[in-house]
């Protein structure tokens, strides 16, 4: 999650779900950047199965010509067809799978164009610099019907003083 000090437009007030992290780098998707593009512009069969707002989301600046899907699959049973569990109720969607089968197995689907990526040690350096917070995700964050309010909502559910960041003004000079 981007801290207020991170003012780069691409990541300002973003909530990033980290999908993979190892010695070679990290990959994630920005959860709160809906685009003014319907999903059917790139993946017509998925339009009626995605969660509101039924838009394509900008997952980040890397690979904007590729798409990635996330689904919330309640329980801890076997993976439904077309889904690979990431952790907990969150799973990656095989966008070549049958959309109806995937959406019936889950409680929400979201499609992202692109992703966020960091090279070896880059994310760790940005954490040391105070650009990001590492917080636990809730499955519903990935498919929230209010992506514009997600940054504040995630901070608002944190304990102690961290919760105060939720009320940090967009422009501190107006404080």
UniProtKB/TrEMBL annotation:
Pfam families linked to this entry: DUF179
One annotated Gene Ontology cellular component of this protein: cytosol
Family membership noted in the UniProt record: Belongs to the UPF0301 (AlgH) family.
PANTHER family named in the record: UNCHARACTERIZED PROTEIN YQGE, UPF0301 PROTEIN YQGE
Record protein name field: Putative transcriptional regulator
Species classification: Bacteria, Bacillati, Actinomycetota, Actinomycetes, Kineosporiales
């Amino acid at each position: 999650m981007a801290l207020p000090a991170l003012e780069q437009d691409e990541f300002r007030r973003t909530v990033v779900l980290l999908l993979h992290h190892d010695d070679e780098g990290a990959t994630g998707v920005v959860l709160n950047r809906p685009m003014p593009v319907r999903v059917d512009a790139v993946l017509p069969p998925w339009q009626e199965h995605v969660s509101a707002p039924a838009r394509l989301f900008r997952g980040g600046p890397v690979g904007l010509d590729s798409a990635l899907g996330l689904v919330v699959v309640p329980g801890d049973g076997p993976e439904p067809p077309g889904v690979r569990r990431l952790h907990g109720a969150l799973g990656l969607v095989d966008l070549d799978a049958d959309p109806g089968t995937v959406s019936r197995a889950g409680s929400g689907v979201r499609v992202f164009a692109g992703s966020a990526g960091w090279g070896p040690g880059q994310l760790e350096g940005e954490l040391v610099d105070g650009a990001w917070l590492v917080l636990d995700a809730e499955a519903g964050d990935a498919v929230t019907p209010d992506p514009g309010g997600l940054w504040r909502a995630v901070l608002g559910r944190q304990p102690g003083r961290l919760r105060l960041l939720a009320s940090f003004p967009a422009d501190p000079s107006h404080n």
